[in-house]
Design brief:
The chain has nine helices and nine strands. By secondary structure, the protein is an alpha/beta fold. The chain has a domain of 176 residues: Ribokinase (UDP-N-acetylmuramoyl-L-alanine:D-glutamate ligase, 3-Layer(aba) Sandwich). Pathway: Cofactor biosynthesis; thiamine diphosphate biosynthesis.
């Protein structure tokens, strides 16, 4: 018989004390049945970039690569129970918020974030469909601006969403995108990542990281592919993941930009659906992107 009298629980305690805490990231968003955007894209991006993903579903969509055919909002009571279940048990470091269907959902999510106070909050303000149609009523957009966006460390609007937030025209070129910077600063948000990916005539895909007193220009070569479904969800989720891992905001955005660029670059390796397919979240296996 071994003379070792150490109990199993002592072994466990010694082992776990040396572990680095797992970076846990929560996504609060809608479900995409086609798997390319929404909660599904968020979980893939967070996992591929090295974090543990958990989720709160705000709506269920009937959706594929050809479009959205139906949306079912989750009842407020169940959204609240999901939030309480996650925050009461898991050490959530960063939160990414995506699709919120209406004023009441926005107010509930904002109230719960104030209650639980995660260290980082990234909001992807999903307001405008690819067709240009508003997904949120103006009253809901105003609620988003007053209740949720001021809590965020970073918001990540595309050009159409930035136009909806500022009440201005959608930028059509680099010059009008530059003019949008001051209008976004007037919203008094902490930091804004204005995404220029929809300026398809530009050789590069250029984003503006807008701080109160400075501007960082992040540019990467434009990749010609139709498979870009879920890019906004993926980028914001990757940024939240990198924030949870201890990167500062600029580093997290730079790493997120690098990740989404590579995911788009490898998108055509997938053959998914008959429309606009998803990006390739696991282009590099499950390895972290550095």
């Amino acid at each position: 018989m071994s003379s070792d009298t150490t109990t199993p629980s002592a072994h466990v305690s010694k082992s776990t004390s040396n572990h680095v805490p797992t970076p846990i990231v929560l996504t609060i968003a809608g479900s995409d049945s086609g798997g390319g955007a929404g909660i599904q894209a968020d979980i893939k991006a967070m996992s591929a970039t090295g974090s543990y993903a958990c989720s709160v579903i705000t709506a269920i969509t009937a959706q594929n690569t050809l479009g959205v055919s139906a949306i079912f909002p989750i009842p407020l009571e169940h959204i609240e129970k999901q939030l309480d279940a996650v925050f009461s048990d898991l050490n959530v470091i960063a939160v990414k918020v995506g699709m919120l269907a209406d004023c009441d959902t926005i107010k509930l999510v904002a109230a719960k974030l104030k209650q639980y106070r995660p260290k980082f909050l990234v909001v992807d303000p999903v307001m405008v469909a690819t067709s240009g149609d508003l997904l949120l009523k103006m009253t809901s957009i105003n609620t988003l601006k007053s209740e949720l966006l001021p809590l965020a460390d970073l918001i990540t609007p595309n050009l159409s969403e930035a136009a909806a937030l500022t009440g201005s025209l959608v930028p059509t070129d680099s010059a009008s995108m530059t003019l949008m910077v001051d209008k976004l600063r007037q919203l008094k948000m902490k930091t804004v990542l204005l995404k220029g990916g929809h300026l398809e005539e530009d050789e590069n895909s250029t984003d503006f990281l807008i701080f109160a007193d400075c501007l960082e220009v992040l540019s990467s070569p434009r990749i010609q592919t139709r498979n870009t479904h879920g890019t906004g969800c993926t980028l914001s989720s990757a940024i939240a993941s990198y924030l949870a891992q201890g990167n500062d905001l600029l580093q997290a955005v730079q790493l997120g930009k690098k990740y989404i660029t590579q995911a788009i670059e490898h998108a055509d390796e997938l053959q998914i659906g008959r429309g606009h397919g998803p990006v390739n979240h696991f282009f590099n296996g499950h390895a972290n992107v550095r």
